[in-house]
Amino acid sequence: MSTTGENAPAAPEGVNLEEASSARIYDAYLGGTTNWAVDRYFADQAVKQFPLIKPLAMANRRFLGRVVRAALDNGITQFLDLGSGVPTVGNVHETVASHARADEGRVVYVDYEPVAAAHSDHILTEQDALDWAGIVQADLRDPVSVFEHETTQRLLDLSKPVCVLLVSVLHFVGGETDVDALVRQYHDEFAPGSWLALSHICNEDSDNEGAAQIARLAEQYKNTQNPAFLRTRADVERWFGGYSLLEPGIVHLADWRPDDEITEAEREAGPFMWCAVGEVPAT
Ligand SMILES: C[S@@+](CC[C@H](N)C(=O)[O-])C[C@H]1O[C@@H](n2cnc3c(N)ncnc32)[C@H](O)[C@@H]1O
């Protein structure tokens, strides 16, 4: 199979074009062009396996947008987007730029995928945003590398509230990683009033056919650079143990403070992800 698609941009050095990557597959689900034949092949197979995957990706992206706007409305202007992905529709810094005062917004993107990192850098440079937004190419399983990075140190003031985004990424973290401990480690770095927003694939609230489809899809991600893990509401509840959950609590995507942008297909896809937002309480 040819690894270079007609629309694919030049790949940064060191990019693995032999195996699909979750960053580039997700870009393909969302109709982007920062993906290669290997990613598009996987995405096409995924649609056959689980036809709601594209609306699910879009519903997740819209959840992200609603969270960022809610945080801004709540006075939070700093964002740490862990597993931020390839820039696409509704990037966090763009939502921030259109909602926060020009001198207030701060955004740090974190992703370990070289294409996601290179394109984030490219878009921030092109938009002349590097003095208030930046990309850290790091593995979020190593929080020290995230917090000690020059860009994080320069842009985020951890003595003030930060909105931490773990959106559609923890299902790619598992295996030897203690996810509970990792989530706690991030929690412990942030000031009272900070938010954690999270979404995660699941299948416990769907009919048997949908549940089996997404379980098979998760299985197929084992053939990519990012094996996926299905988890349950109980896992999400545990991760929010140190937070005060904000209304409406742990719900499916379309039910978190919905607006009228949500389509019927996105509503149908909703039960395949849990999502929630919690606040670090005052001590
Ligand atoms: C499905 S995309 C989600 C993008 C974005 N958060 C969203 O919800 O629209 C998952 C992203 O997480 C990144 N990712 C997965 N594991 C990671 C890790 N351990 N460290 C950093 N990034 C990771 C992938 O490279 C990919 O870009």
TrEMBL record:
GO terms for biological process: methylation. Signal peptide: none annotated. The keyword Methyltransferase applies. GO terms for molecular function: methyltransferase activity. InterPro entries: SAM-dependent_MTases_sf, SAM_dep_MeTrfase_SAV2177_type. Keywords: Methyltransferase, Transferase. Gene3D superfamilies: Vaccinia Virus protein VP39. This is SAM-dependent methyltransferase. It comes from Amycolatopsis minnesotensis.
